[in-house]
């Protein structure tokens, strides 16, 4: 019984490390929402119009190609955004396991007021980590910030086979 419990813990640790490797390759992730500062609602200067990936299922070793489409709803050019990306994975008997998060800065967008622009990103999916397959179901989620104000959130489910 102890050996099975130990093997489960080792497997979870390896899943965590492998998924962290996937997360480290992310450059952008999409969304939608409003923001508040000091109890006052602040209108975001941008809105996430759409987001996605080129497919929902990837083979281990593939490159996942994704996008976020951002509309400038403010009155000045948007050059830079920050995306706080999170990865989680469903683990039998434990539920959803958060595998980490990371901030990504996207520069040089040059989106004029009233215009919409698509920013692309690519993530390399490792085939395995320390002998453990990276195959499984993952939930990618994140929050997009423009000048420190939340412009949107997203959630996307992908599978790695």
Walk me through what this model shows.
- This protein is mainly beta and 161 residues long.
- The protein has a single domain, classed as Sandwich (Immunoglobulin-like), CATH 2.60.40.10.
- It is 14% helix and 53% strand.
- The chain has one helix and twelve strands, in the order H-E-E-E-E-E-E-E-E-E-E-E-E.
- The chain has one helix at 2-24; strands spanning 35-37, 40-42, 46-53, 57-58, 63-72, 81-91, 95-106, 116-124, 128-129, 132-133, 136-146, 149-160.
- The strands form four sheets. Strands 4-12-11-6-7 form a five-stranded mixed β-sheet, with helices on one face. A three-stranded antiparallel β-sheet has the order 3-5-8, covered by helices on one side.
- A hairpin with a 2-residue loop joins strand 9 and strand 10 (132-133).
- It is elongated, with a radius of gyration of 18 Å.
- The model is unreliable at 5-14 and 16-37 (pLDDT under 50).
Helix content: 10-25%
Indicate the low-confidence ranges by residue numbers: 5-14, 16-37
β-strand number: 12
Mean of the pLDDT scores?
74
Oligomer description: single chain
Q: Which structural category do the helix and sheet elements fall into?
A: mainly beta
- Rg for CA atoms: 18 Å
Quickly count the domains. 1
Approximately how much beta-strand content do the residues carry? over 45%
Indicate the CATH architecture: Sandwich
Instruction: Kindly report the CATH topology.
Output: Immunoglobulin-like
* CATH uppermost class: Mainly Beta
Q: What is the H/E string?
A: HEEEEEEEEEEEE
